[in-house]
Amino acid sequence: MSTAPQQPSYIIPPPQAPNWKTPLIIGAFLLLVAFNVYLYMQMEHLRNDTKAEMAKLGTDLSATVEQIRIDSNASVRQATKRVQGVQEQLEEERRAADRAVGQAKIDAQRKVDQLQKQVQTEQTRQQQVIDQVKQSAETANTKLDSVSTDVGTVKTDLGTTKSQLEQTIANLKRVTGDVDSHASLIATNGKELDALRALGEKNYFQFTIAKSKKPQRVGDITVQLKKADVKHNRYTIQVLADDKKVEKKDKTIDEPVQFYTSKSHQPYEIVVNQVHKNEIVGYLATPKVQDVAR
Description:
The structure is a single chain. The protein has 294 residues and is α+β, with helices and mostly antiparallel strands. It is 55% helix and 23% strand. It has 2 domains: 48-140; 173-287, Sandwich (Tick-borne Encephalitis virus Glycoprotein, domain 1), CATH 2.60.98. The strands form 3 sheets. It has a 4-stranded antiparallel β-sheet, covered by helices on one side. It has a 4-stranded antiparallel β-sheet with strand order 4-5-6-7, with no helix packed on it. A two-stranded antiparallel ribbon has the order 1-2. Strand 9 and strand 10 form a beta hairpin. Helix 1 crosses helix 2 (190-199). The longest helix has 151 residues, at 21-171.
């Protein structure tokens, strides 16, 4: 049986590594010392700058305060001056207001006097108008009495005229015309023609027709005188109605010359009352009722 070899009784320590911590600590210490010195110098420089700034600030502040005091005094003087100006203006306006009130009183009194004069003038004018109305009323009453008398006279005259008209109508001649033996009342003068108009049975158109180449319009027809025989009171005419010409020869005065038109069932009538040289005088009678459909 073999045995292990025995170790020596002493131990040789291992070789030591290089010591690097010490230089690092020394460098850090030196760096710290340098930083503290720099910091101290900066603080000292800041302290000096602060003192200088404070001194300068104190000087500027004193100057500013002095300028403010000067400006304040000037502002106070200006404000005082403005207040005095306002007070003077108010005083002037008060005096002007007093003067205006006094003038207003004078103007008001003047207007009152003018109004009183106007009222008196208007009262006088109204009284004059009333007097004129009274006078006019009295004059009107007088005229009314006169008119009443005139009305009575007119009524009497109308009654007389009516009686005369009735008598004239009663004396009118009924003459047979030259168409269909149709008889009608005729007028031989202006008075009888007025009586016929009063009856209101026909329309009447008076005419005076001279001998001419051109026919003359009477009512809604035209008439042309062809011949006028003064010695025998005879005449010849040509009538144009409905675009148709009808000649009436050798008719005598106060003879109804009749003809039909498309406008009426009743005949038209021409009555000549006077025959002069180359001229006839008379009237045209047309029915009141017109019938266009005929």
